Amino acid sequence: MARLHIETTINGEPAEFLCDPHETLLSALRNGLGLTGTKEGCSTGDCGACSVIVDGRLVPACLVLAPEAQGRTITTIEGLSSGDALHPLQQKFLEHAALQCGVCTPGFIVAAAALLDAKPNPTEEETRFWLAGNLCRCTGYDKIIRAVLDTAAHIRESAV
Amino acid sequence: MSIPREFKYVGTRPIRHDGVDKVTGRASYGADAAWPGMLHGAVLRSPHAHARIVSIDTSAAERTPGVRAVVTGSDFPETTAALALGEAAIDLRDISESMIARTKVLYHGHAVAAVAATTFDIAKEAAEKIKVVYEPLEPVTDIDRAIAPDAPILHPTLKTKGAPEGATGPTNVASRLELKRGDVDAGFAEADVIVEREFRTAMVHQGYIEPHACIARCGEDGRAVVWCTTQGPFVVRDASAAIVGLDPAHVKVIPSEIGGGFGGKIVVYLEPLAIVLSRKAQRPVKMVMSRDEVFRATGPTSGSKIRVKLGARRDGRLVAARASLWYEAGAYRGSPVGAGAMCAIAAYKIPNFFIEAYDVVVNKPKVAAYRAPGSPMAAFAVESAVDDIARELKVDPIDLRLKNANREGDQAPYGPKYGPIGLEPLLETARRHPHWTAPLGPNQGRGFAVGFWFNAGMNSSATVTLNADGSAAVVTGNPDIGGTRVAQALMVAEELAIRSSASDQASATPTAAASPTSPAAAASAMRRAWP
Amino acid sequence: MLAIRYEAPRSVAEAVRLIAADPAARVLAGGTDLLVQFKAGARLPSAFVDVKRIPELIGVAIDAGGLHLGAATPAAVLTEHVELRRLWPGLAEAVHLIGSVQIQGRGSVGGNLCNASPAADTTCALIVNRAECVIAGPGGERTIAVERFCMAPGRTVLERGELLVAIRVPRPAPRTSDAYLRLIPRSEMDIAVAGAAVSVTVDADGVCTAARVAIGAVAPTALLVPEAAKALVGSRLDDAALKRAAEASSAAARPIDDKRGTTAYRRTIAGVLTRRAAAIAKQRVVS
Description:
Strand content of chain B: 15-25%
Structural class of chain A: alpha+beta
Strand order of the largest sheet of chain B: 3-7-1-15-12-13-14
Helix content of chain B: 25-40%
Structural class of chain B: alpha+beta
Distance between the termini of chain A: 55 Å
Number of strands of chain A: 5
CATH superfamily of the largest domain in chain A: Beta-grasp domain
Number of helices of chain B: 16
CATH architecture of the domain at 173-205 and 300-437 in chain B: 2-Layer Sandwich
CATH superfamily of the domain at 173-205 and 300-437 in chain B: Aldehyde oxidase/xanthine dehydrogenase, molybdopterin binding domain
Oligomer: heterotrimer
Strand content of chain A: 15-25%
CATH topology of the domain at 173-205 and 300-437 in chain B: Aldehyde Oxidoreductase, domain 4
CATH topology of the largest domain in chain A: Ubiquitin-like (UB roll)
Largest sheet of chain A: 5 strands, mixed
Radius of gyration of chain B: 25 Å
């Protein structure tokens, strides 16, 4: 079976890759494109470590087929920081020590970025609900929630 | 306990050195690396929990285009050595056979063969083409079945270590030990209240988010380089070398960043397979477990059955304790039941006790360390019984524990005298906390329990290099599982009284460049540095 | 070698041609069930037929007739839809319970239905709202009531070459509302032990003039429970009526024992959830 040639936009830049028809977007990102910031924790949509944003929507890359990416716009963890500047979420995760081993962190930050796009002023409950699909085995979540809420406040203040 | 001095750096909260790499996705974990020319490995696993392997035919897999190497248990030498591993010695033969089956499969998911091919899909398909003829045997999946007189036997040569004189015949009980003090029958005779309870706990997996992963390369000179996610690169080096028959000096382990371990990433599961596949194929081989494989074939903590009997006087003094602990070791001996026995009543001053502990093999994956290995299930049983005593006596559960708390200078049930264990001030603090007396709302409850665990430094080493500009670099042999880079840097800064200690390189320090260091016990190291 | 094709038809006719020609092809909507089953080795399709590029299968439209829902529309599109949430709050809350935000970004109501799990959260809410399934096939289009769509766990009425195109839900009558409740042992991200949806119409005097009750995860398919509805109609949805409806739901339940719950527990819970959902639906009409 011939591999498929897929053209897409990843982190604001045109990207193309070859994939097997049954390959996942997660595999194409990690193995085909070398974007290993998106992690594989379960491959069944349960852990959130592979969270990416496709056409503005938060999805688990493990449950997207790579050929589906044709013509779509994808944001991964690698696309959140720009040049020297970290994304505010990345900065707040560091300040709040909202990570320990760090393997779930890219997924949390991408999911939280999608949250703040959808709801710039989320309540704690909304934040916890939104991030329920991301598993962290180390932190107990609290610092992650604080970091996200603090980021939201910071973005609002900066906008004023 | 007193803190000897004011700290200048320890206790501050600088941004962790690995932080930016981890929030940007740049940090490289076990599955994130790719080496030029690498192959991909897949493992064929047993669909039976207990079966004899009659035959293995790998020819169809070997003929599959793209396949470069196939290995089975017969590719690994017999080994009988033991390896010192943290708190216990492990039998390398058990580790080797747990990693890949020889004559029997002993758990569902037990590796039987492994394949390296140009793609993972080819390797997986080829592995499925390997024909294994099994003779299924009755699986032993719980303690009661394992210790029944007519139980199927996992290991025909297993003898009970510590068995009473004269005990013979095949068994699933790998060891038995006792801890005792005073006269336990006399103790119960003087007790006003006695509770006796039985508890069972299930095997529970560590559940780290990052599955096991490695890349190994074994060159023409027979030397191997292994990149892997591990809590103990020196364990991986020594165990892999022994299992594949190499000199440890000829195995270099490069630990990746580690996506959680909780005790479960100390043993080797993939690395020796990858080394031997690489040696056959003369190409690097990458192996990554699926979540399904992690749950089926890597170490959980023991399931247990625990019987506890406690006796107390009317005034709340515990006067006698009897406990029997049976821990599931999984397919190979070595449950943490000894630690469970040592911890069970370690919080309490009880003049008369008798504790017996049994290490029992069952047809499940071999257990691995998991957060105070062995202690939580013993604490669950004993603390539940202590609560029942409090209920019977109608006294506050914290008061009851205070009355019986061990203090500095008291003798531990396992022998030595305690140092400053801090239990009494801890209980006092808890009792004064508003949460202990706050009114409960609907559907709210409140409980209290005490836990006990040891501390051990084991082999630890660090190299500090002073740079020309007056900064320092720290090199240690352990991966940073949750903030140890910063913790170590702060300690060095404090000791050297320099403004900032440059980044150490705890992760990605190859074993060849660091001194031997026992596996990372992340929680303890981290919590000391981050108050 | 795995030889699986990926097809992304642009029209219903093209999709129907593809799946009619190849019975081993599988329709891919959000993939949150299909790809998990594929990876577990439970399904080995000859092709994934991705239907998300077919205009009729994507999107939410609400007009005087009611809701027209493209079968492959991600769940998140529904939960974000203000008018949908206003008209069918019970349906919206059922959709909102599916998996995580990530899963809702992929998984569709049509896919949830085609997976035919008796515990699917959306099915009960669709049933009480009189939803209909629009099915395209080689012989043309047909429409059936949603309660007749699933036949057994994992089995639907879809025949070879047939594709679920859309789900239609009629606009609710005036003074009508709905509610869906499920029980899971944790607060998020789990599969229902039991679920119940209720829709009620209440007149100006507070009398229930129409009702539909459906229960899930307590039989091989989600069940419409006319006896429970009967207990509600004509009443003021007082405690006695709710209790009778609960008893009817419990009586109709035919649950199995499994790791999620025992037969007896599920039967009881089906009743409790019916009672509570009815009370919420009533409250929604009143307020």
